[in-house]
Fold each of these.
Amino acid sequence: MDFPIIEESEEDQQINFFFEDVTFTLPDEDLLSGWLLGAAQTEGHGVSEINYIFCSDEHLRKINIEFLDHDYYTDVITFPYDSHHIHGDVFISYDRVRENAATAGVTFERELSRVMVHGLLHLAGYDDKSPDDKIKMTEREDFYLGCCMFC
């Protein structure tokens, strides 16, 4: 199966990047968007809009407490807004990604890409609560990381 990289000219599909209380440089944003749109297409979904919001541990922990009633740090929280198309917000902790990359012995870009596609997979309907679901999601993450040209 060939993995499609979607050209930036897809006007009706939007991937946006925002920085809440952290600053860092993303890999090539056009290439990153195309890779994520290609992953969505491979999963059989169109994208109406995904907002990736990068923030600190503390910012994401506050969101975790307020909206999910979980008082702990996490690397990603996803909020879907539409069950028919991929449309949602993906909050990512820069601090967790950086620490997880060091722990796993991978580059920051690779771990960031893993977390970003993880959020997209949640928006596409994947869950990771059960051991079997977690295995399926990890397999999909690994597949897309194998197609990643910048991580």
Amino acid sequence: MLTVVIVIHLMIVLSLIGVVLLQKSEGGGLGMGGGGAGGFLTSRGTANILTRTTAILAMCFFATSLILSILAGLDRKPRSIVTPASSPSAPAAPGSTPLAPPGGLLDTLRGGPPEPAAPGAPGAPAAPAEPQVPR
């Protein structure tokens, strides 16, 4: 469904660009002098047809834009930035650290900074011993 609406939307966009470019400039903006086609599509009836076509294509463009935005929002689900991401379905490898602490971000912040691990505790990185230099 989404692909069909996108294709229709693109066809409307291309048609709208073509119809707008076919219209005669009435203000002579930027000194271009009202079009250089030398009488091509200059009758008043043609101008009315192009104006109506532009209005109809603009309404269709607006409608397809709304439809596309509604279709894009259907799959969107609300989510919280405070709770951690859902854990992966496969169990973590032994010895690996979890991606997010349990309890969420707010619980982690309420608890204060993490306590440093004891030097001999398992899992704590062991720092190399500094050599004692006699003085």
